[in-house]
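Objective 1.3, modelling of assemblies. Example input:
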Amino acid sequence: MSGPTQSSRGFTILELMVAMAIFMVICAAMFGLLQLSQQKYSSETQMSGSFQEARLGIDQILRDINISGYPSQAMFSKPISSASYAVSPFAWDPGYNGVDLSGACQVGVSCDPIPSGFDLIVETNFGSGVSWIRYQLNGTTLLRAVVPKTVNGDPASATLSALTPFVENVMNNVPVVSGSLAAQITAQHPMMFQNGSVPLFQYSCSTPSGTQPCTSPTAAGYNQPQNIRDIDVTLIVKTPQGDMQTQSLQLMELTGRGHRSNPAN
Amino acid sequence: MKATSKFATRRARQTGFTLIEMLMATAIVIVGLVAVAQLVPSSVLLNSNNRNDGTALVFAQREMELIREQPLTATYFTDPLGVFCPSGNQCLLGDATQPNQLVGSPVVLFENSPVIDYTAAQVPNYSFTYSDRNDPAGTTTDVRWAVVTNKNSWGVVISRRIILGVFRRGMSSLTFPVTLDVVLEK
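Predicted structure (tokens):
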């Protein structure tokens, strides 16, 4: 009588507690793993989002550079208003008069502020008359403006009020903008920002000895904005927040090269 | 008495799981859960691999764009900024005195397509290593190419085939070289 009853007993409280303790430990580990993968997922989502945004940004910049200077005055058989053609693929400041190339500045010497490493105005017609497309890096925000070209207008002042945010968290000029952020970046990536800011735009000019960086001595005398042939674009972007696990900054760099389409040059 | 005995046997058959059985069941569940949880980091890794492959492909396309701009008569190309050819160097575009054969970096067949052989050493003027110090990924790009200059029966250069490989090295994750194969006619 007592035998069967003995064998059909349930767990003792001790057994139950041991089993539950083991289960709890395993559960805790599982939740830890879940949290880890959620953090990873969220970091990766941010990274993909920023990468996508930067890629769209650089694609637009390169597209604008690749159609710069279209159409040139030489494409028209009779005299036409200078608002209907591009005087130069890239407008400049100061000295721009909208009609001819007299007064054009020298890139890296007297072109201040446009065109420079962080400021560029493309002159082109992308369907609705000749426009000025300006890109300016202000702090960590890349701004963009599109305004129609006017005969006696000044591209720098005309585009200034139309600038709107285009790409956020751009780090090219971070040594100037935020020393602490720059120190954080160089702690993680010692090679970056060794020469200070990284120019967003680097210009190459057409010279008799081939295409040369506009600032090189070989390009002296050929370093006006109408002679810019290639523009190398470097875009360094960070994600809005750091890595969820390590709190380290997530950065990415995109590069591209565009050139003018002005057939007159 | 008989009834009680019957009752007792039924009770005896109705025992619950033992602790060992419970532990075994839990272990099986855990193995399953861990296997599923591993999918998350592996997909994250795959994502970053894809991004690196994409970056290598973009570099290869830009390099190819520069090569495509060169006329068929050009024997070399340069890049003053030192991105697509080390600055001051001449990157060669084949040899017209050796027509209809591969000149430059060694090539192997992979699934019936020619790809640059990255187990071989770099060939001067047909390869270079580019490192972009502003790239947070801290990688170096190993660029190599081979050129076939095609001549017609009158000895005139009619086309040029470029096989271009780009390999991003120094990544924490596994990457493979990218190969582009283009025939240029002008």
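The two ends of chain B are 108 Å apart (CA to CA).
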